[in-house]
């Protein structure tokens, strides 16, 4: 395993704890494929991404969570996890547009540092079981949310780095 893929795994595990990639999960921004660990700027994130969910049984539903692990800044992430998007009741073999948007999409706009933005797909054991929307986006906890609504640990996840439009550099990975 390369240091880059282990860093991706650690970012995903930091947010969600255990993680078992068992469902195909494809993300594209502005009709361009997204790859784990990509560096994206806010201008490419204005419109919500297309999220395609695999599987083979339309009766199985998933919840999609998109969070920022480094809000308001990576040195002092006092608002982590910042909730950027929450969609429930996404049937397998479809995309997020078939689900119910509980928290509307808000594109990341970091003002300081390089932020890790993470997507997670959690299996629902019952359709329409998420009936309360979070009151605030700040300090959201995916793990607590999953426990409250009896969701699985992530069955698919992905992450990218995002910094302000005029930012320079990127995350440095060392062994």
UniProtKB/TrEMBL annotation:
Protein name as catalogued: Flowering locus T 1A
Gene source species: Gomphichis scaposa
Top-level taxonomic group: Eukaryota
PANTHER family: OS01G0202700 PROTEIN, PHOSPHATIDYLETHANOLAMINE-BINDING PROTEIN
Pfam families cross-referenced by the UniProt entry: PBP
